[in-house]
Amino acid sequence: MAKIKPFKGIRPPKDLVEQVESRPYDVLDSEEARAEAGDNEKSLYHIIKPEINYEPGTSEYDPKVYTEAARQFQMFQDKGWLVQDDKEQYYIYAQTSSLPANGGKEKTQYGLVVCAYSGDYEKGIIKKHELTRRDKEEDRMKHVRVNNANIEPVFFAYPDNATLDSLIMKYAAGKPEYDFIAPIDGFRHQLWIISDDADIQTITEEFGKMPALYIADGHHRSAAAALVGTEKAKNNPNHRGDEEYNFFMAVCFQASQLTILDYNRVVKDLNGNTSEQFLEKLAQNFTVEKKGKEEYRPAKPHQFSLYLDGEWYCLDAKPGTYDENDPIGVLDVDISSRLILQDILEIGDLRSSQRIDFVGGLRGLGELKRRVDSGEMRMALALYPVSMQQIMDIADSGKIMPPKATWFEPKLRSGLIIHKLD
Fold first, then answer.
1. What is the signed CA dihedral for 246, 248, 254, 255, rounded to 10 degrees?
2. How far apart are CA 155 and CA 260, in angstroms?
3. How far apart are CA 266 and CA 420, in angstroms?
4. Rounded distance, CA 88 to CA 419, Å?
5. How far is it, in rounded angstroms, from Cα 261 to Cα 364?
6. What is the pLDDT of residues 151-189, one digit of tens each?
7. At what angle do helices 162-172 and 197-208 cross, to 10 degrees?
């Protein structure tokens, strides 16, 4: 059963939160972070992308960059830009957005900010659905080590829970501690504090009944936090198991509230095929229907949109091309990888191939059209989004999602809460 605890969050004062908060470290490059931080010395990018404090071109993996992260984190605390709460408590973090996946309607998702137990990651109670890369784990481990803190949270999903939903709604009816519209994404972000002891106990107990938590986004941060916790335990001769380093910060959302966008593909060539030959080969496993020049979005699972030579096509996977009883084989990302990218285009490893790129659904079908029309890419493939239930089924089965399968939106903002490991 899942083990969580409240914690003394380190947060910006209310009047500084919009100067401190930022996008997550892994959704932008160094130069984008440099531009977004500008002359704002309070921007969290100085801690999570500290290479911006050096000359352009400085590697984010340079040892001095990690040292600079720790220096900046300490300075933020010394100057009162980040202040630790006096009491161990939970927090509610809400995101309100209008996304195409929700028909453009406004939707709010409510997350509980908790400290998850590193041991649950090791035991598989915190379940993953993606492979992690050791180099990326090591980078995040260094960042956690040098700061002795989880500067950014990971993003979890949990099975829907009526008791927690009722408690969250009680707080959401009141005035939030933070309430702002973020630049770039234009989404609303709010935060409430749960300091009532009875409510804190209820949250801890309800999570204690859950057989699993699911990593939605932040697999490398989860792995790094758990590994640092294990490392600290081994180095502490008086280790008890309840020390703060045994826990890492996560924002946990009810699974049904989450929005997963399509994660689409653009490809540079047709592997020597003409357009006509490519369409003929597609017709072996798909029903191919030309849709014309108007953008066409897949309407259901096992349906794909192809953009080629200025035209949109609907591709319906034929019966027998996938296995409904295989949690991986039934995924559209697997169907398209097998039957189009591998069989026809001979693109094997999606992670390393230079012939393919991936476009998050937030950018829309117009971005796929633009990249093909510009001549940069030869064709584009749009997929129907993976469901949260599919992700949970795969994680429960112990299997791993194919690469570039999920795109969660909105992304968590960083800098609203930080968790110290001591």
1. -90
2. 13
3. 41
4. 11
5. 10
6. 999 999 999 999 999 999 999 999 999 999 998 888 999
7. 150
Q: Roughly what angle, to the nearest 10 degrees, separates helices 63-78 and 134-147?
A: 40
**Token pair recorded at residue 248:** 């890492």
Residues forming a β-bridge with 174 = none
**Rounded Cα distance, 91 and 181, in Å:** 19
Q: Is the pTM of this model over 0.85?
A: yes
Q: String of b and e for 74-102 (b: at least 16 CB within 10 Å)?
A: eebeeeebbeebeeebbbbbbbebebebe
Cβ atoms 146, 139 nearer than 8 A: no
Confidence at residue 129, expressed as pLDDT on a 0 to 100 scale:
87
Token pair in block for residue 251:
């924002």
Interacting residues of 336 by C-beta distance below 8 A, sequence separation 6+: 265, 304, 381, 383
Beta strands 263-267; 247-254: pairing state: unpaired
Task: Using alpha carbons, list the distances in angstroms from residue 171 to 166, 168, 199.
Answer: 9, 5, 10
